[in-house]
Automatic annotation (TrEMBL):
Protein name in the entry: PLP-dependent transferase
Signal peptide, first to last residue: none
Lineage, top ranks: Eukaryota, Fungi, Dikarya, Ascomycota, Pezizomycotina
GO BP annotation list: molybdopterin cofactor metabolic process
Domain of life: Eukaryota
Organism: Clathrospora elynae
Segments forming domain Aminotransferase class V: 13-439
Gene3D superfamilies per UniProt: Aspartate Aminotransferase, domain 1 (3.90.1150.10), Type I PLP-dependent aspartate aminotransferase-like (Major domain) (3.40.640.10)
Keywords carried by this UniProt record: Transferase
A GO term for molecular function: molybdenum cofactor sulfurtransferase activity
Amino acid sequence: MRNSEYPMLKGITYLDHGGTTLTPRSLLNSFCHEMQAVLLANPHSDASNPSASAIMVEETRHQVLRMLNADPAYFDIVFTANATAAIKLVTEGFSGSEDGFDYYYHRNSHTSLVGVRELAARSHCLASNEEAEDWLAGRASNVLGEPVSRRSILFAYPAQSNMNGERLPLSWPGMLRDSPRHPNAYSLLDAAALVSTSPLDLSNYVLAPDFVAMSFYKIFGFPDLGALVIRKAAGHVFDHRKYFGGGTTDMVTCIGDAWVARKHSSLHARLEDGTTAIRSILALKCAIVTHRELFGGLGKVSEHTSWLAKRLYTRLISLKHYNGAPVCHLYNHPDSTYGDPTTQGATVAFNVCGSDGTWVGPWKVGTMLRARKIYLRTGTLCNPGGIACALGVDAELLRRAFNEGFRCNTEADMIEGMPIGIIRVTLGAMSTMEDVDVLINALYQNVTEHNDALKPSANDYNNKVDSVMTSN
């Protein structure tokens, strides 16, 4: 199946599915067929008589809700450019309020979640899972060090860390909603990393997040499209949003008394500014069907990638220099267990050490691997809080590193002998054990220091098990 569906992988080992996964040939064929068979008119051209494109958009919207087990009576889907655009849309709703909002975010937050703090009246980074749970339970409600505010509160966190794959509790939004200490608080879940290889179940609307951001290219490879899933009970947050775009209003005046009447038929009608991305949404419709046909659904993908990640993790920790010193230092959370998809995703984060314990810069390792057509991710991974905690560096050192010329994923990625970045492997639905073997052998042959008299064969690291999934 991999040879026929992913010809771009010939001679290449691709291990950056967390950046974007790859597009199968059958999805492109399906999309091209649909593009030639369906007339895609602008859905705004005749709203009283919906076109084929308008019907297709609504069908796809319901397909996404079904994929998430989300009842359309309680949830709506707003299509966006990507997960970051979905997060920005939520921020526009909260920042439009006269009183502003307070913002709490987990240390594992992607940069796109961290950036929300710039529009908040007050913000605080929850530096550990324990601090987050204490705050959610009301045991540390005044962590901002000021009197409790009457402003709305937005609490944001990733379902899965994009840095090391740690999966955080999906029970947190329910805890927040049940807490009497946080009566005007809302939850924003960044699900982009999680849903790339795992299902998300929103069937219990009482305990579900108020807002979920996601990107479809991380699941399917194509199209470049995202979505914001909104719990309708929280939809009033967007009453404060200032901006409006084409297609989201019933009436606008410009001369004299300037006013606007926004659409209220649905949240997506009010929030999808401009012409709907009809071609991308058609591609999404094709992608959902194709992905299910190829892989049997995200549940099967989760089983497969969890199995592979556990084996990769085990192989990396078994790599030793001639003197027994470890080759790799891994950055998994102590509460996460490889092979357990409730606590750990298909991501392995590590750095490389010499036999004397000195660090090898991640940029240098990444360059060596790319020369061997092995593609993964190095740098700070758009996860500033997670990286700082994993490496044990503080804001002062990072500022000094910046002033001395450090920039993410460049050759100057060491300060005082310590890396300011990591190496990240993310597996996908079409990853195989052979991909793991290629990476391990490259590290063994090019990084591991050997005593020639005791040097084993590189073949000792081969274990040609292909997959726990049935391939076509």
